[in-house]
Design brief:
The complex is a heterodimer of chains A (about 325) and B (about 130). Chain A has about 325 residues and is α+β, with helices and mostly antiparallel strands. Chain A contains 12 helices and 9 strands. In chain A, the strands form 2 sheets. In chain A, strands 1, 4, 5, 6, 7, 8 and 9 form a 7-stranded antiparallel beta sheet that branches. In chain A, a hairpin with a 7-residue loop joins strand 7 and strand 8. Chain A is globular and about 60 Å long. In chain B, strands 1-2 form a two-stranded antiparallel ribbon. The longest helix of chain B is centred in the middle third of the chain and has 26 residues. Chain B is elongated. The N and C termini of chain B lie far apart (about 45 Å). The chains are: A alpha+beta (about 325), B mainly alpha (about 130).
Chain lengths: ~325, ~130
């Protein structure tokens, strides 16, 4: 491994709620687009809800509040005519050499990594999740200089650890994936792109598939209503809350970040109604937080564990979101 | 969420990190606010962590009692389960379960041991014993 010293000039680390939207926004900003994390998130139509009972993470179903990994990066292509260069590698050596070569050219490089093997992550947050995004903006001796969007400050990581994280195996194995922004066609966000992105989100949230969008919330509510009061059920409920609050969502399973996007969208499109809808989504987000609080109190044993009450709260959330996305659809029609 | 409602209770699972939350400031604008974490996150994270530690402690006792092999202990200690270890090591789940038998584990070939060691981020010597 070469010990080069390289730092991309003028790179600014910004703290973000979510890894992928943060990495996308920081990378685009480095290339001269003034892009906030919320705008990157909304513009790629990343908001969602999915209840995937057949994908098990340590025995519990995957509940996602957003679209699958790489959706946000890919969503940057059209609105900015951006061209990303994604590369994966068959051997760790080749992957590390390529990273060093790109850094030596002064580039900022995005990486997909596992969370578990990153030493700077807090011990209790290290789980086997393979689709974490971060940016590397330089190297000093054996240490890579890392802008991890979900960390408030820039980090450092030794090359052996980074290699391990980049070549972790299992579901969503990154295979050393790295990406650079090759070129960019436009630097302004157009009103048309914003409207298109909102329409797409409405389609996803109100779509016909029973496990996606508001229908997915109802299905999860039905599942929760059928839980007994065992330890396993408490873990099941805890798992829902973890997906919603802990795994880098900006609070309330991305609802607050989307509310921030709608505020920006109101300015860009000139549709004042969107600002009001942002307010409404903020309230819906508070509803999600109440759900999390209630669940946490039940887990701690401060309240009687009543799965039916939690299911009721989920159904109310589904109802509010149905109404919300219908109004949003009319607003951008 | 209002800026004043952003939880700053301190979540020990975050360590010295802070996480970014979105909240409404005094002028009604949604902004990023670094949060020290809330009791809610801490509860659910610790719930998950404790579940894993309980499994690890349980595996350790069974290894000491000669009912299981160090492989099961290390799998739990690395926060994996059999399906995940199978994906990572490329060995079938039923083979992994067989290797939880201490006698079988002792007879494993260096090649298979090396695959487990690689998957778990250990040296072969570490894999063969409890820490």
């Amino acid at each position: 491994m070469s010990t080069i010293n390289a730092i991309a000039t003028n790179f600014q680390h910004r703290h973000a709620a979510h890894c992928e939207s943060g990495a996308a926004a920081n990378l685009m900003t480095h290339h001269g687009v003034k892009l906030s994390e919320a705008m990157a998130f909304g513009l790629s139509s990343a908001l969602s809800f999915a209840y995937l009972p057949f994908v098990k993470l340590t025995g519990f179903p995957l509940i996602a509040y957003r679209m699958p990994p790489r959706f946000i990066l890919k969503g940057m292509r059209k609105p900015f005519q951006a061209h990303f260069n994604f590369e994966t590698f068959s051997t760790p050596d080749a992957g590390m050499r390529r990273l060093d070569a790109l850094l030596a050219q002064g580039k900022v490089v995005g990486l997909q990594t596992s969370v578990f093997w990153l030493p700077y992550f807090p011990e209790d947050m290290r789980f086997h999740f393979n689709a974490h995004n971060l940016l590397v903006y330089g190297k000093e001796g054996d240490d890579y200089l890392i802008s991890d969007p979900v960390a408030d400050l820039p980090q450092r990581c030794a090359s052996a650890d980074l290699q391990r994280a980049r070549f972790a195996k299992g579901a969503l194995a990154p295979k050393g994936m790295l990406y650079c922004l090759e070129r960019i066609g436009r630097t302004e966000v157009s009103a048309q792109a914003v409207k298109g992105a909102i329409k797409k989100t409405v389609r996803i949230m109100l779509g016909p598939i029973p496990i996606i969008g508001v229908r997915g919330m109802r299905m999860l509510a039905n599942k929760v209503a059928r839980l007994d009061t065992s330890e396993h059920s408490l873990n099941y409920v805890g798992n829902i809350v973890r997906m919603q609050e802990e795994i880098g969502t900006g609070g309330a399973g991305f609802r607050f970040i989307y509310a921030a996007f709608l505020q920006e969208a109101a300015q860009i499109t000139g549709l004042a109604e969107l600002a009001g809808l942002s307010e409404r989504l903020n309230e819906i987000g508070d509803g999600w937080r109440e759900f999390a609080l209630k669940a946490a109190r039940m887990i701690k044993g401060r309240e009687l564990f009543e799965p039916k009450r939690l299911a009721e709260m989920l159904r109310t959330q589904a109802e509010h979101e149905t109404e919300f996305f219908r109004t949003l659809k009319r607003a951008v029609a | 969420m209002d800026v004043n409602d952003v939880p700053q209770e301190g979540n020990r699972t975050l360590g010295s990190h802070r996480k970014a939350l979105y909240a409404k400031d005094a002028s009604g604008k949604m902004v990023i606010v670094p949060s020290r974490g809330s009791e809610v996150d801490e509860t659910v994270t610790l719930q998950a962590v404790h579940r894993m530690t309980a499994l690890t402690d349980d595996a350790k006792l069974r290894v000491l009692a000669g009912q299981s092999s160090p492989l099961e202990y290390w799998m739990c200690a690395r926060r994996m389960d059999v399906p995940l270890l199978s994906q990572i090591s490329g060995l079938w789940q039923w083979r992994i379960r067989r290797h939880f038998n201490p006698q079988r584990f002792k007879r494993l070939s260096p090649g298979v041991l090396a695959r487990y060691a690689e998957a778990l981020g250990l040296s072969v010597a570490q894999l063969q014993a409890l820490p």
